[in-house]
Amino acid sequence: NWETxxxxxxxDEIGMLGHSINDLAASLQRYRDxxxxxxxxxxxxxxxxxxxxxGYAKVLKDGLVDSDKEKKQYLSIIYQESIRLEHLINxxxxxxxxxxxxxxxxxxxxxxxxxxxxxxxxxxxxxEEKRLSLQLDLHDHVPLIRGDHKRMEQVLLNLLENAIRxxxxxxxxxxxTTTKEATVLSVSDTGIGISEEELPYIFERFYRxxxxxxxxxxxxxxxxxxVKKFVEMQxxxxxxxxxxxxxxxxxxxxxxxxxxxxGGMS
Length: 266
Ligand code: ADP
Known about the structure:
Blueprint: H1 13-61, H2 68-99, E1 108-110, H3 112-129, E2 133-138, E3 145-147, H4 149-165, E4 171-178, E5 182-189, H5 211-217, H6 223-233, E6 237-243, E7 247-255, H7 256-261
Parallel strand pairs: 2-4
Antiparallel strand pairs: 1-3, 4-5, 5-7, 6-7
The structure holds adenosine-5'-diphosphate (ADP).
């Protein structure tokens, strides 16, 4: 426990040293708290799908289900939970690499249009299954930006999957435009929206709006923290506009100046 604080009485070097030690102890304590919360979250997130997998697999294995319809239903739950587990593991892996500073971006001049089209192609089926229209509005003459196309695709996939996941009817729109100052990419949906009170937290690891509801939607609560980190590593910023029951727009802004300054980094 790092709550023990040194009593600092003097204002000389020894006193300053005392303050520094206290600051250090406080930040160590914060680190330990976050770490504890993080691991307890991971354990919970991993345990839940595993419990489902075991439960349904056991019922099937023990021959407790007769009807084919029910068997199919249980198998489909097992399948979905295993996909969920796979996503969670992938997200955790990506996050841990980011945090250890182990991710090396492969910065190159890239055409966001191509990345958008690739990502959209991958989520097309999901949108169709929910009868959502998936629209593109890609302006001509958008300059190339410097970025890592694999990471950018991951960012787009996370945003698109969320847009589809949290939208019951209507559309998902990807727009690419350019202004004098920046290249602007946005993903908008006509979905359930996020309340103003919750907006500040949604980039936090494991944060989900209304936890009980999140289970029915799937998801890991890690997607947006990865989005934010990847975008910032590529010199961009993320903003959100959302209104409950109306929809959500995530906007990625890549300032031209910034891009040039960071051009040499890779
Ligand atoms: P998850 O894997 O749970 O979707 P994310 O980190 O991607 O985790 O998102 C965090 C939370 O933000 C989600 O659980 C959801 O409540 C909310 N959210 C994200 N994207 C949207 C969206 N397009 N519309 C409404 N809510 C969203």
